[in-house]
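Let's do one together. I've listed all components of the complex below, 230 residues spread over two lines.
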Amino acid sequence: EIVLTQSPGTLSLSPGERATLSCRASQSVTSSYLAWYQQKPGQAPRLLIYGASSRATGIPDRFSGSGSGTDFTVTISRLEPEDFAVYYCQQYGSSPRTFGGGTKVEIK
Amino acid sequence: EVQLVQSGAEVKKPGESLKISCKGSGYSFTTYWIAWVRQMPGKGLEWMGIIYPGDSDNRYTTYSPSFQGQVTMSADKSITTAYLQWSSLRASDTAMYYCVRTYTSASPFDYWGQGTLVTVSS
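Okay, and this is what the predicted structure of the assembly comes out as:
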């Protein structure tokens, strides 16, 4: 099983700042089958990034993903008020599909 | 519009059985797979398993080792509905359960149901 470790656990930033979230895998992720999801309180998660760097439909271009192998990053170039949420990475190339523990982006 | 509509919240006692549902609409139900994700209170996401609704015998089903033998996934393509069931609930099954759509067994989860909250308490 691939274990995904996200860091930091919590990121305290102000609107307009840049956010960089990390996801490290215990072994190489097959074909960069790495996704990022955003979850707001009381809501289901939604897909942000897939294939490590492709934005899902409707996701603004302030969100970008990068990485390969075992190290992946999602960057939010300028935080908007609606971006404060919990972010999860997930690998979907190996079974069982696994999620990281999440990074909470909170308002400073 | 793609929708996954899940059944309502449930309150059960330990040892009881339960079957929750997830109805897909707005897309070809038999073209996509359905996965289930658990989220315990205040915790992260856990992949439970995946099923291909296009097979009437539900043969294409994979469970996470953590959930193998604990739950059963099934689907009825005639009514475009997937199910997750327990034969004997435990307090530790208290969680939000999401069904999600995925194009293949190795694809991201592009649409999520609204979640079904299951509470198990004596």
